[in-house]
Here is the input.
Amino acid sequence: MRRPWRVAVVGGGIAGLAAAVRLRDSAPAGTEITVYEQSGVLGGKLRTGELAGQPVEFGAESFLMRDPTGAESAAVALARRLGLAEKIVHPTVGQAALVIDGGLRPIPGGTLVGVPGDLDRVATVARPAADADTDGGRPLVGPDADVSVGALVRSRFGDEVVERLVDPMLGGVYAGRADDLSLVTTMPALARTARVEHTLVGAVRAAQAAAPRAPGAPVFGTLAGGLSTLVEAAVTASGATVRRNAAVRELTATDTGWRLTVGPTRDPVLVDVDAVVLAVPARPAARLLAGPAPAVAAGVGALDYASVALVTMALPQPRLPELSGFLVPSTEGLLIKAATFFTTKWGHLRQPDGLALVRASVGRYGEEAHLQRPDADLAATVHRELSAVLGTPLPAPVDGHVQRWGGALPQYTPGHADRLAAARAALRAAHPTVVLAGAGYDGVGIPVCVRSGETAAEEIITALGGSAR
Here is the structure.
């Protein structure tokens, strides 16, 4: 009788946990799943904490409700699978603003991550270049080409649209610069239409038409009680053995599968498994692949990351605008790159005593030196800059928290998708029972990470001989 499969999931973030759940659902009964997490906390960038007695997110805040096809997103599907669908709640205030010339202006509608499909609608925040978006008789982007978002938008709409609209929108997601970020990876829908359309306005409109949204349908959701409930439910549903504070330091091929070297150098534990899901960032994945697949490791390890800090404050009865938050162009010269008014945006978090939870994001790619400041200095600067942007002194916080995420956000430069496809093809050919999953490979956002983990699990099942169910 064949022994049960043994699968190691390296990395206890949401991608790794989604892989574990899919393995439990689809792999043969009795499959042994072990999750190895280097830190003492599961969930990766999903982390619900507490401030002034109230739950608050110290990491990712929400997820998209729909995927690019219009179907429910992988995050929603996972929540449903885990019995959490009834806990999904939506923003009660959706309007956000941009900081322009030191003041707040509403973000104009009709854009695709800041790239406008109607130039007149963005005139309140940026002046598009006159007559630059002309039909040159050929598609904007070649069939196999990738460009930076900034390069494409600058050539068609000019500098102001990039610096005042696109850059802060992308910066709020990636903490990077539009001029450095891949169009194919960060805006795949626009990349597809740019291979057909001859103008950028036409490409934006075509991308929007390809993914219509029902009027009034919510774009974002989160879970009442916090996103850590998703993590906890996934751990339970996976039935996996979880090893916290368990760094996997080496991965070695054996005649029957893989040997993991786990734990401290002086007292390592050797574990033999049949397959491995590497749901860790690119650099630690590259270190583990350096022995069995050095060429793959070199390609994967080239990905760079940005670091950020999230400064959250509990403010007693502040005067806040009826906005979900705001984004800050780098040209404004502020440390803050974005702010969220949690208790305004999310109705389920509003407090009868008027206590407000406000969070600011600090840190742009290439400006990590700012993050070396002590927590108290960061918090004081954020408080001062928020007061200046709002035009009124904010009350002193009654509680606060600084969450630092070192190397948190992948910086996908042009060509990332092709480089990753080549690395995965090489890994699949040489070692089909090792699969990569997570934000470093497939994109940021909870739904993308969930889908990445689930896809990795399916690949492992196929490589091991398919499901017995």
In short: The mean pLDDT is 94. Residues 115 and 166 are 6 Å apart (CA to CA).
